Amino acid sequence: MKRYATVVAALLLALAAAVVASLALGSVRIPPGQVLDALTGRAAPSPYRTIVLDVRLPRVLLGAVVGAGLAVVGTVLQALVRNRLADPFLLGISSGASAGAVAVIVLGVGGGITTTVALPAGAFAGSLLALVLVYGLARRGGTMTGPRLVLAGVAVSYVLSALTTLLLVVAGRPEQFQEALFWSLGGLGSARWDSLLLPAAVLAAGTGALLTLARPLDLLLTGEEGATVLGLDTARFRAAVFVLASLVTAVLVAASGAVGFVGLMVPHAARAVVGAPHRRLLPVAALGGAVALVVADLAARTAAAPQDIPVGVLTALIGGPFFLWLMRRRPEGAAL
Q1: CA 245/CA 247 separation, integer angstroms
Q2: What is the pLDDT of residues 248-271, one digit of tens each?
Q3: C-alpha to C-alpha distance for 322 and 314, rounded to whole angstroms
Q4: How far is CA 104 from CA 99, 161, 183, 324, in A?
Q5: pLDDT, the chain, mean
Q6: Quick one: which of 34, 28, 11, 32 has its CA closest to 20?
Q7: Number of separate domains in the chain
Q8: Is residue 334 part of a domain?
Q9: What percent of the chain has pLDDT over 70?
């Protein structure tokens, strides 16, 4: 417990440092002292204060929320399918959510409530459809292997990405194209204070619910038969948690677009530090995901300044080689 507390404290300090750095650095550099003054309310009205509180802070907080959520969902999916190559991006959930969100934008569903109701609903429908397709394609003869699941996820992700591209091509107005392209690349540039409430609330509720399910998730680590013998209805439990994971992913994608590989890389690092029990693993994964995406977004904003690289592009550039290394490192068909 002492080591666990040390890890959590270190991650909290790292997150605080990443937040301050993200607020201070960018096309306009702001001294850290003035950043802290703006955060604590001691700063007088000024352009620096406006940049910190109204432009950068919502973006940084959204990055922390999305990173934490993707890491938590990735951790849970890896336990559900007993394969450490699983994450929302590779299993097609993010691609499905992006396709659903883009369809809502291009088709004009929801009218004036697109951003508040129709967009998350469309993303949820797309992510759930993707998950059903992947799960159905991966099962054969009542069994499901890890390599088959990953292959099914990649195939479905390609199909849904092609569908998203088709929707972009047929977008009737240039502003539709620009708005829809954001969801296909992933980014935090459109973050606003009013867009933070829903993803933060869903993250808090979803993570809280998953923490109460920590013991059943641990039982899945023993295997299908072992979990059943210990009293877990694995089929019903998986279905319920898959729906919950799809809902969380959909809300995050509706806010940030498809940001890949955070849910793959962070759970591995967290598991290496605190072990596999989910009651300890999930909070560490959430903090690690928040730190990872805040730092990645800072790099995306500053690497080619004044141009703003979509953070999803940067995470894919880092996560792709990590995925290939992971595939080479683990024996074929290996589970957890």
Answers
A1: 5
A2: 888 888 788 778 888 888 999 999
A3: 13
A4: 9, 15, 11, 34
A5: 83
A6: 32
A7: 1
A8: no
A9: 90
User: Using CB atoms within 10 A of its CB, is residue 269 exposed (0-12), middle (13-18) or buried (19+)?
Assistant: middle
Is the backbone peptide bond immediately before 306 cis, with ω within 30 degrees of 0?
yes
Per the domain annotation, does 38 fall within a domain? yes
pLDDT of residue 145: 62
Q: Does a structural domain hold residue 74?
A: yes
pLDDT band for 146, please (50, 70, 90 cuts): low
Nearest to 206 by CA among 307, 94, 91, 68: 68
The amino acid sitting at 141 is G
Structural domain includes residue 107 = yes
Of residues 93 and 271, which shows the higher confidence score? 271
- Give the integer Cα–Cα distance in Å for 134 and 119: 23
The amino acid at 15: L
The predicted pLDDT at position 333 comes to 47
What residue numbers bound the domain in which 102 lies?
A: 2-329
Q: How many residues does the chain have?
A: 336
Whichever domain contains 234, its CATH number is 1.10.3470.10
326 vs 147: CA distance, rounded Å = 13
23-27's contacts with Cβ under 8 Å and 24+ in sequence apart are: 23/52, 23/56, 23/57, 23/60, 25/298, 25/301, 25/302, 26/51, 26/56, 26/301, 26/302, 26/305, 27/301, 27/305, 27/306
pLDDT > 90? residue 142? no
Distance CA 104, CA 98 (A): 10
Distance CA 253, CA 134 (A): 18
